[in-house]
C-alpha cells in the first residue's frame, strides 16, 4: 500500500510505494532530503516523525532506541506504515555543486608508516566552494572511483589528501606508487555532508581513528583564529606511536584554537609510550563524563563510530548534535581503500 509523506518545513509532498524507503521515494520524485551514506550508518538523513509511524527491515546503526522513542527516524531505512508528516534537519551552508576537474599532482610524500600526503593543484577551481569536512572522488578511468576526505580548507588552488596505503588496493597499491609531481588525476568534488555546524554554539568533541583525522583537520583549520571558536577537544586513536603522522603539528594548533585539548590514544603502545591507551571513545568518555553540552564529530572505523555513538548517548549526548563521516561506512560496505 502506498503512503503519502508531507514535509513540514517545505510543504513538499510525495508518495512512498510499498517496501520503498522514505528517502528513495523522495529522491525518485525530486524532493530534497539531506542524506549521505544511504546505509543507516551516518545519521545525516535523520527526521522527526510528527505524525505516523515507520518500520525497519534492519535496525540502523545511527538510530538508538532513545532516538526512536523521541520520534526520530532515519529516512534512508524507514518504511512507512501510514501516511507521514515529517520535520527535517536544518539546512547547511551552501557549497559548489560537484564538478569534474583535471588535477595536477603538486607533491607526494610519506607522512607515516602507511599514509601518503597528496597535494593536488586544481586549475580552474578559483570559484570552488566546499565545506571543510567534505570529500572528493578520484576517477580511475575504468569506471571505478575512490573517495578521500579533503584534509585542507578551501583556497581555490590546492587540496590535500591523507591516503592510507592498502595492500592490493586498486588505487593505493596499483596507481599511487607511480604518481609524482606533474602527473594528472581526474577528480570530482565536493561531496558529502560531514561539516562543522557553527550554529550549534557548543563545545566541540572531535573523535577520529586512522586517516579519519583528515576531515576533522579541515574543520579545525577552518576555525583557527576565529574569535567565535568554541572550546575544542580532539581524541585521535591509532595503534602505535609511529602511526601518529601529524602528532607534532596537531600540538601546535593550541596556539590558534580556543581552549584546545589534544589526546592521542594508542591501542597497541610500545613500552616507552607515556600517554593514554585503549579505545579512543572510552578514553574520551572517561575524561569528559557528561556529553550533554557537546557537539560531537566522529570519523574513522564504523566499529568505533557505532560504539562511540552508543557510549556517548548513554552519557548524556544529544543525538541531534552527533555527526559522523558517512564515507567510512560506505567504504566498509564495499571493497575500497
UniProtKB/TrEMBL annotation:
<dbReference type="GO" id="GO:0008218">
    <property type="term" value="P:bioluminescence"/>
</dbReference>
<dbReference type="InterPro" id="IPR036010">
    <property type="entry name" value="2Fe-2S_ferredoxin-like_sf"/>
</dbReference>
<dbReference type="InterPro" id="IPR017938">
    <property type="entry name" value="Riboflavin_synthase-like_b-brl"/>
</dbReference>
<feature type="domain" description="FAD-binding FR-type">
    <location>
        <begin position="98"/>
        <end position="197"/>
    </location>
</feature>
<dbReference type="Pfam" id="PF00111">
    <property type="entry name" value="Fer2"/>
</dbReference>
<dbReference type="InterPro" id="IPR039261">
    <property type="entry name" value="FNR_nucleotide-bd"/>
</dbReference>
<dbReference type="InterPro" id="IPR001041">
    <property type="entry name" value="2Fe-2S_ferredoxin-type"/>
</dbReference>
<dbReference type="GO" id="GO:0051537">
    <property type="term" value="F:2 iron, 2 sulfur cluster binding"/>
</dbReference>
<protein>
    <submittedName>
        <fullName>CDP-4-dehydro-6-deoxyglucose reductase</fullName>
        <ecNumber>1.17.1.1</ecNumber>
    </submittedName>
</protein>
<dbReference type="InterPro" id="IPR012675">
    <property type="entry name" value="Beta-grasp_dom_sf"/>
</dbReference>
<dbReference type="InterPro" id="IPR017927">
    <property type="entry name" value="FAD-bd_FR_type"/>
</dbReference>
<keyword id="KW-0455">Luminescence</keyword>
<dbReference type="InterPro" id="IPR001709">
    <property type="entry name" value="Flavoprot_Pyr_Nucl_cyt_Rdtase"/>
</dbReference>
<feature type="domain" description="2Fe-2S ferredoxin-type">
    <location>
        <begin position="3"/>
        <end position="92"/>
    </location>
</feature>
<dbReference type="GO" id="GO:0047099">
    <property type="term" value="F:CDP-4-dehydro-6-deoxyglucose reductase activity"/>
</dbReference>
<dbReference type="InterPro" id="IPR006058">
    <property type="entry name" value="2Fe2S_fd_BS"/>
</dbReference>
<keyword id="KW-0560">Oxidoreductase</keyword>
<dbReference type="Pfam" id="PF00970">
    <property type="entry name" value="FAD_binding_6"/>
</dbReference>
<dbReference type="InterPro" id="IPR001433">
    <property type="entry name" value="OxRdtase_FAD/NAD-bd"/>
</dbReference>
<dbReference type="InterPro" id="IPR050415">
    <property type="entry name" value="MRET"/>
</dbReference>
<dbReference type="Pfam" id="PF00175">
    <property type="entry name" value="NAD_binding_1"/>
</dbReference>
<dbReference type="InterPro" id="IPR008333">
    <property type="entry name" value="Cbr1-like_FAD-bd_dom"/>
</dbReference>
<comment type="similarity">
    <text>Belongs to the Fre/LuxG FAD/NAD(P) flavoprotein oxidoreductase family.</text>
</comment>
Amino acid at each position: 500500500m502506498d503512503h503519502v509523506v508531507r514535509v513540514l518545513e517545505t510543504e513538499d509532498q510525495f508518495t512512498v510505494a510499498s517496501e520503498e524507503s522514505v528517502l528513495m521515494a523522495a529522491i525518485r520524485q525530486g524532493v530534497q532530503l539531506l542524506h549521505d551514506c544511504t546505509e543507516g550508518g551516518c545519521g545525516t538523513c535523520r527526521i522527526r516523525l510528527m505524525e505516523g509511524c515507520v518500520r525497519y527491515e534492519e535496525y540502523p546503526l545511527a538510530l538508538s532506541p532513545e532516538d526512536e522513542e523521541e520520534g526520530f527516524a532515519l529516512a534512508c531505512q524507514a518504511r512507512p506504515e501510514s501516511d507521514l508528516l515529517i520535520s527535517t534537519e536544518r539546512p547547511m551552508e551552501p557549497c559548489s555543486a560537484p564538478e569534474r576537474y583535471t588535477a595536477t599532482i603538486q607533491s607526494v610524500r610519506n607522512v607515516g608508516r602507511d599514509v601518503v600526503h597528496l597535494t593536488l593543484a586544481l586549475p580552474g577551481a578559483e570559484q570552488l566552494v566546499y565545506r571543510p569536512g567534505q570529500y572528493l572522488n578520484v576517477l580511475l578511468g575504468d569506471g571505478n572511483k575512490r573517495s578521500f576526505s579533503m584534509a585542507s580548507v578551501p583556497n581555490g588552488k590546492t587540496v590535500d589528501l591523507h591516503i592510507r596505503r592498502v595492500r592490493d588496493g586498486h588505487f593505493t597499491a596499483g596507481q599511487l606508487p607511480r604518481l609524482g609531481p606533474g602527473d594528472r588525476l581526474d577528480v570530482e568534488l565536493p561531496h558529502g555532508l560531514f561539516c562543522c555546524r557553527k550554529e550549534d554554539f557548543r563545545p566541540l568533541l572531535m573523535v577520529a581513528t586512522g586517516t579519519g583525522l583528515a576531515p576533522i583537520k579541515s574543520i579545525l583549520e577552518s576555525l583557527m583564529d576565529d574569535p567565535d571558536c568554541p572550546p575544542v577537544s580532539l581524541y585521535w586513536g591509532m595503534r602505535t606511536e609511529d602511526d601518529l603522522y601529524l602528532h607534532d603539528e596537531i600540538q601546535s594548533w593550541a596556539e590558534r584554537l580556543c581552549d584546545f585539548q589534544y589526546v592521542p590514544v594508542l591501542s597497541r603502545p610500545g613500552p616507552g609510550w607515556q600517554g593514554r591507551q585503549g579505545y579512543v571513545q572510552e578514553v574520551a568518555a572517561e575524561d569528559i563524563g557528561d556529553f550533554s553540552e557537546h557537539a560531537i564529530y566522529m570519523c574513522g572505523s564504523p566499529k568505533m563510530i557505532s560504539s562511540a555513538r552508543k557510549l556517548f548517548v548513554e552519557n548524556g549526548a544529544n543525538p541531534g548534535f552527533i555527526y559522523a563521516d558517512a564515507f567510512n561506512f560506505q567504504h566498509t560496505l564495499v571493497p575500497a581503500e
